[in-house]
Every structure is written in structure tokens, then in C-alpha cells.
Here is the input.
Amino acid sequence: MGKKELKVAFLLALRSLQRGSKSSVILTVIIIAMCFTNMIFLPSMLNGIGQSITKQIMDYETSDVIVDPKIGNQYVEDKDAKLALINGMSGVQRASPHYSKAATLKYRQRVLGVTLRAITPKDEMLVSPLYTKMVAGSYLGEGDTGEIILAKPVAGDPTIKREDEFQPSLGGVRVGDSITVEFANGFTKDYRVKGIYYTGWYVADATGYITWSDMEQVEGKTLENAEYITVKAKPGYTEKFIKNELIQYGIPDRVQTSTDVLAKNMGRILQSYAIINVVSMFVSVIITVVVLFIIITIKTINSRRQIGILKAIGVDKEVIMHNYGFQVIILAVLGIILGIIIALLLNVYMTYNPIVTADWTTSLYMTPMDLAINSLILFIAAIVAGYLPAYQVSREDIQSAMRA
Amino acid sequence: MIRITDLRKIYQMGDVEVRALDGVTTDIAKGEFLGIMGASGSGKTTLLHMLGLLDEPTSGQIVIEGTDVSQLTDHEKTMFRLYKLGYVFQDYALVPDLTVMENVTLTAMLRKDRTEEQYRKEGSIVLQKIGLFDRRDHLPRELSGGQQQRVSIARAMVNKPDILFADEPCANLDSENSRMVLDLFREINEEMQQTIVMVSHEEWHKNYFHRIIHLKDGKIVSDGDNQ
Here is the structure.
């Protein structure tokens, strides 16, 4: 195939689309765009869920690296020494200790069991974005005593009846209210609600936080141990680097990166998402292939006599085949461009209107690479679908074609 | 010059053998305006298609300008049609999505020996000759039947083929347009010494032909100069 042949094939293709049935062209482009959107939407949403869960786990559970008690121990011992050591490491932004205890919250006639977390607010601010999630009141201060911050779902909404609640709550606690907290060890104390937060992560939103000193009062002793320590890396340092650094510095406890934790807890879920993504993509590609195959087959069948005439006057079968090939390429490119526009618009829409469930909040997560790969797959599928009938009809003998 | 020797085309219709051409032998001289006439089913279109390399004979030989066309490959036949032959069909057979100019220059665009400037110039000349230059940007559906057939002739002529084949080119035209088309053929034949082989069943077309072959049941029943 020379340049002239390709030029003629392109001219025939372009003119056929320009001057042929406009509705057919528009419909085909929309179908391809819808197939592309279908290919990209579900995987992007599942990726978004995965990314959202990952981010929320990192933000509110593990940070970049989590130090858990070594096997057989209940706590990370000698936490002050370890915190001093970890905070002195080159790649560490901050380490924050955590301590949890089961408690029963009481407010008016409501009783709710939760696991309260104790933190050192100053450290936690450098490790977790919890302090940015306050919807009422303020975050805990380092010297606070007798104060608590509660998740919005725990505080509840006074306008919602108990029987209508999605999850049990205290029925509408407001900032400044006093709630009674009875811990598992029997220690009971009234706390003033200093703030109410909402993270969108179901674990964090099912609890409340008090200061470390308040938890020491609950336990009746100085807490030298931590349930676990979360470590935030400085910008430019990887979590793997921090993990290795911690191990090299002789931290004897179980050191895991967030990726390690996610692989254990989320690995199967993410694998399932990957399978769904592949199935979704496969179905979309098949639909596109079938639709384009039918469209080009109908076009070629309707044009058999014209194809015969073109061959009769000296137009090579390759030119005729590429004519339909170019038509498919143009339709596929237009469809993919429209599909990308729709996908990007959906992305923008869902950024401002995320999907909110009781467990997580998510929007679409798509990268330029996702768009490029899906475009390429659809493009190749479209070419295959278009060229098959074009190849068949271009090889038909002139007499049969002209008699059609 | 075209030399046809014992040309046969046999179709098998179930158990019945149909002899569309049954031993046709004749020569066509360069510059000749040959008319192939006969009743419907006599084999005239089949003979034209054989000569135009649009169909394969069952047996026999066709030699065009010294080339035994039965020896050509499929691609070589396509190139032979592109460079040596021109066609005018009964139903004009224009590409509906191309303009008049694009239809006329389509095959010229494919030729290696034509630049874009050349084929545009030649297309314009041919369209001026048939009186449709001012309609060069129109689509075929915007033209009358006679105009479409003239475009079809222009398309066949733009490459200056050695032989022009016309398959009942006036079948869908009224007598005035038919006369216009036949006058155009005569003009091309006389001015350019163009060999034209034309199938027709209209008796009055005889006046335009130098020589007439009459076919019946796939055989030549008469072959002679037009008096």
C-alpha cells in the first residue's frame, strides 16, 4: 500500500462519514463512547473505593508505618524511649502512641458501647488529619483533661428518632454537653464534649478520643506502654525506608508499612475488584466489537455493488478494505474522545458529589494511564471489528459484488 | 488491438449447463467503435465483462495489446483495468458520497504516473468537455440521469484508457440524453482515436458504430461493418 492508495482510502472513508447517514455516525460514536465510559467507570469507582479505603486506613489507622506489639506481647513497651528514638530518625516526621479501651457512653436515656482511643494530640496532629475533620467544636489540646471528642455518628442527630437511626448513637450530643463514660475496668467519669468530627471512615467514626493523661487517670497509673505507635514519614521518604530504619535502629516490635497491612487486610478485596474490572472491560470490549462488526457488515453489504464497481474501475481491494478500516478508525477515535470527555465530566461530578456509604466515602479514581490503556484496548478492538467484514467483502469477486 | 479466441463461459445452474458464451472468436481493431448487440440473454454483457477483465472465461483466450490477460494475477488485472481500460455502466455507478470532481479523478488519484496537479487539471478539462465543469462540486444525486452518465464517461476518460467499455449506457436515459451520450462517445472516438466497445439493444444506436457484432445464445451470428 502506497501513499496514494491510503489517500484514496481515507478520502472514501471521510466522504462516506461526512455525506452518509449522520444519525448512523452519531449513534455509532455514542455507542463507542458509552462502551468506553462503561470500561472506565466501574473500574475507576472500584479503584476509588480501594484508594479511599487505603487513604482512610493510612490516615486514621496505620499512618505510613505502624509499630505493633511483638508476638506474645499485649503492648509496645517502654513507649517514651521508643518514641524518642523513632522521632530522632532522619526520615520520620512524627510518631504518635495510641491506647484503646472499651467504654460505655451514657447521655440522657441513651447508652452506647464504643472503644475509646487515647492520643497525645500534639503528636497525632502530625500523623493523622483527624484534627482537620472537626464539624463542631475543636480538637483536643495537649493539656486537656475531662474532655472528649466524638465522631458525628456517635454523637447522633436529635432530629432522627432512635428507630430510624442507621447506627446506634447518643441521640444528639452537642459540643459543651456532658456525657458519662464508664470504662471496662469500672472507672466512671463525666466528660465534656469538646468537639465532634466526621472522617468518612467507619472505624474512626465509631469512636471518640481522649487525651493520654485522661487515659492514665482511667488506668490509675502512668502509661509506659502503648497499644501501638503510628509513624509518619517526612516528605520524600518512603514507608519502606522508615520500616527499614526502624528495624535497623533495633525496634524489637512488629514493624509494618501501611502496604503490608493493606495487603493482609485488603488484598482479597482488591483482587476481587481487579477481577470485576477485567470482566467489566471484557464485556465492554465485546459490545464494542459486536456493534462495530454489525455496523461495518451492514455498510459493506449495502455497498456491495459499489465495491464491485470500484474494483471494476481499477480500485485495488486493499484500498476498499482500508476505506472501511479508516471509517472504523475515525468512528473509534471520535467515540473514544467523547468517552474520555464523559468520563472526565463524571470524575468532576463525583469529586463534588462523592458516593457516601456507612463504611467509606469515595469518588472516581482514574489516571491518565488508565484512560490511555482503555483507549488503546478499545481502539484495537474497534479496528479488528471493522477490518474483519471489510476484509471479507473486499475479497469478493467483482461479478458477485456487482450483481448484489 | 484485442484478439478473442474461442471464448466460452459456461454456468452450471443445478443440473443445467448454461452456455453464456459459446466459442466467440473475433478481433477488435484500435480506434474502432464496436457495437455488441443482441436480445436479452444473448451473452453481450458477459462478453463485455470478459473483455473488461471483470469476469473469468471458462475457456478461450483474450489478448489485449499483446497481453494474454488470462495469465495476469488478480492484482495485475486490477492494475490493467486502472491503467488500460475505462468503463461506463448502465446505472452510472458513481460513488454517491463523492462530488462530481472527486468521482472523475478517483482512479487518476491512484495512478503512479499522475501528480495531484495533473489529475486535477485533467479532471477539469474532461468536465469542461462534457459541459459539467460548473457542477464539479455537486453530488451525483443532485444531477439528472443524463448528467450522471456524462460524469461516468468523464471518469472513464480522465485516465485516457486504451479501450473504453460501455454496458448499455443509455438504458436509463431518455432519447435526448441518449443522443447526447452517444454523440459524446462518437466525439471521443473520432478526436482521440479511442477504441470503444459498447453493448446496446437499441436499433437506432447502430448509426454510431463502425462495426456491429450480433450475438445469439452466446454465439456470433453476424459480424460486419456498419453501412
